[in-house]
Amino acid sequence: MARLEIHFKEAFSVADEIDSLGKDISRCSDQVSTVLKNLKRYRSAAFTPLYVRLQTVNDALLEEAAKMDSLEDALRHIINTYSNSENRILEFLGAGSSEKTTNAEDNEADESIFKRFIDWIKSLFGWKEETKEEPLSITREQEKEHDLYMQNEIFALLETPAYNKETWSRATVEQRKDILQNYLAELSTIYGVKISSEIDFCHLGTSTRGQYSPNSKQVTINEDYLSRTDSYQIMQTMIHEMRHAYQYAAVEDPGSYNVSAETIEQWKNNFAPGNYYSGDDYSRYVSQPIEYDAKNFAKQYNDLARAKPEYKGSWE
Predict the structure, then answer these.
(1) pLDDT tens per residue, range 38-49
(2) Closest CA to 278 of 215, 211, 216
(3) Which one of 125, 156, 172 terminates a domain?
């Protein structure tokens, strides 16, 4: 008869090791979240692509870990990735990785592998430890400055060979869909919003070029417009609809976007059930805060000719 033996010592050892790895990854996750939050709170438009990229890398790492054969393998993969990243950062800063390897055994058990990186980031921006995180107050001028920065970045892309009018005019309908998909990815990075990476191409009739759904977080484009002689204006439609995605994101998480409290309140009220006007009175439609803002941002100035807004956000 086969004899079943349970090696309790080895089992407890493995359990302790997994528990230790779990605590390490928990600290890593907290530090990554802190870096992302601080980058957003610093409010510099130039860092928008950086914290979006950090979030993308972090998400990709977690997806890789989820495919591992065991929890221990997943935790080891994450820990090793963060450790290797730290070594490369220290080498870049001139600290080198050999010293860390030599003195690894002397490190405190609760020391985060990203502590030195975070200290470096803090020294760059003069961040101090906060006992309580208070949301920063964004002025109308700061809001306008950030809007103009994003607007310039977005429209500069339309001057590049990948997205200019000449390339568009030579493209087939299917190729135009690819152009729009690539442009969506560029816009998501500049706006700093996370939405569906796929555009929903469908038939929306003759009066609608596109729309954005906050529920599915997806942009929809009327593919019937892609074969029209004036189809290039769809690029402005993309900017417009992505601005709606930005508006929703700012209302949901005001502390992460350069939008003043006054504008947030107006957008929030306009989004409230029963407050958004979609009727036949075009002047009333285009004058409401979220549409007036989106059309201004997308430079759809002809559409604003009949607008009489009571509130203009950063577009005074």
Answers:
(1) 655 554 555 555
(2) 211
(3) 125
